Amino acid sequence: MIRPCMRLWLPALAALAGCAQQPSDGNGKDDAGAGPPAIDGGDVPDASTTATAAATPEEKGPCAGKAEGALACEGESVVRCAGTGRAQEAVKTCLDIERCEAGACAPACPKGEVYVPATGPAGFTMGKNLSAYGFGNRKSGYHGKGRADLPHKVVLTKPFCMDQTEVTAGAMKKCVEEKGCKAPQRTDRWITYPDKPDYPVNLVDYPMSKYYCEQYDKRLPTEAQWEWAATGGDGRSWPWGEEEPTCEHTDFTQAILISPGGDSGCHGGGPSKVGAHPKGDKIWPDGPIHDLAGNVWEWVIDSYVPYSGKDEVDPVHERANIGTRVVRGGGWNRSGRGILAAFRGGAIWTYKVPGLGFRCVRNAKERDAALTPR
């Protein structure tokens, strides 16, 4: 309770109370030696303390309001917070296909591409020891030897973005017009270029496919990247799982073909529009990837050589002296066995057929930490 004649801390209150001003010794105390008065028994801060508190800015920065040890984002870097609310140390810088979000690196692939994470140190198993290695011309009489797909562990250390669909005839037309891509020749009744823009481009050889990807700062996938994207490493038979393939899953040939190729397929011959069989998608957290089985085969970087059976990290098996490249995924004129996720096909690098196309990947790059906003 305010006593009537005590010198109040605020002059305005003193005037209202009608109290007489008491003499001061000049040091902020009255003659009785009392310090700053109390209101209802509570201490009132002196003027200097009040001014200091008012001048203190609100806590700002990535760690504002976060506990010690919490993770936050500073630009595209993940940082660990100190108890003062300031960043204490950089934990890591996100790759160029990622963004820092809520203290972690999150997918940031361009539209039309799907983020595929790294395998982690446990890796995954490639090879089912089912395919004999045999690839040679008839004249030489060489039919190969041994197994083409010895099981082995593969670790992929970086994530990548994969095209959600096979490259379309429409996309190839744009590249022909703007970036110097070579147009497929109209030599087959099932050609999609240029009249079917929403269908996978076909009758493209390895150099044409490789050139296209490079014009968009991308690459053909490695064989390991392709299989990891198609299966997630869980050993599934097809990208969607173990359910036997039907024409709801993909465009393929349900009957046993008389010859290696034929005018077959779910829709009477030739590929389907990309993404027309969503039941057969491989679903990743960042989105689905379409047509990894059937529709058209897909070129990959690797030369067609047998697996060594030894564990590998980020493998790329390019051999300049080997003109045969691996193709994956099967096409509309292949059976259920030919579209298995682990099935390895091989084709001469100049091969151009209506059941063969491609898709690209965007490989992750390290950001320059010095240029990352801090």
Keywords:
alpha+beta, 374 residues, 17 strands, paralog of FGE (formylglycine-generating enzyme), 5 helices, SUMF_dom, formylglycine-generating oxidase activity, three-stranded antiparallel beta sheet, globular
What would CATH call the architecture of the largest domain? Alpha-Beta Complex
Instruction: Tell me the distance between the termini.
Output: 53 Å
- CATH homologous superfamily designation of the largest domain: paralog of FGE (formylglycine-generating enzyme)
Question: Major sheet: size, sense and barrel closure?
Answer: 4 strands, mixed
CATH topology of the largest domain: paralog of FGE (formylglycine-generating enzyme)
User: Which bin fits the share of residues in helices?
Assistant: 10-25%
Written as H for each helix and E for each strand, in order along the chain, the element string is HHEEEEEEEEEHHHEEEEEEEE
How many structural units, i.e. domains? 3
Radius of gyration: 34 Å
**Judging from the principal axes of the Cα atoms, what is the shape?**
globular
SSE class: alpha+beta
Mean pLDDT: 83
Contiguous runs where pLDDT drops below 50 for at least 5 residues: 1-57, 370-374
Annotation, overall tally of beta strands: 17
Q: In which order are the strands of the major sheet placed?
A: 15-14-12-16
Give the strand content. 15-25%
CATH class of the largest domain: Alpha Beta
* Number of discrete helical segments: 5
Structure description:
With 374 residues, the protein is an alpha+beta fold. It has 3 domains: 1-48, no CATH class; 71-106, no CATH class; 114-374, paralog of FGE (formylglycine-generating enzyme). It contains 5 helices and 17 strands. It has helices spanning 11-17, 47-55, 169-179, 206-215, 223-231; strands spanning 71-74, 77-81, 87-93, 98-101, 104-107, 113-116, 124-126, 152-155, 160-163, 282-284, 287-289, 297-303, 312-313, 324-328, 345-348, 356-357, 361-363.
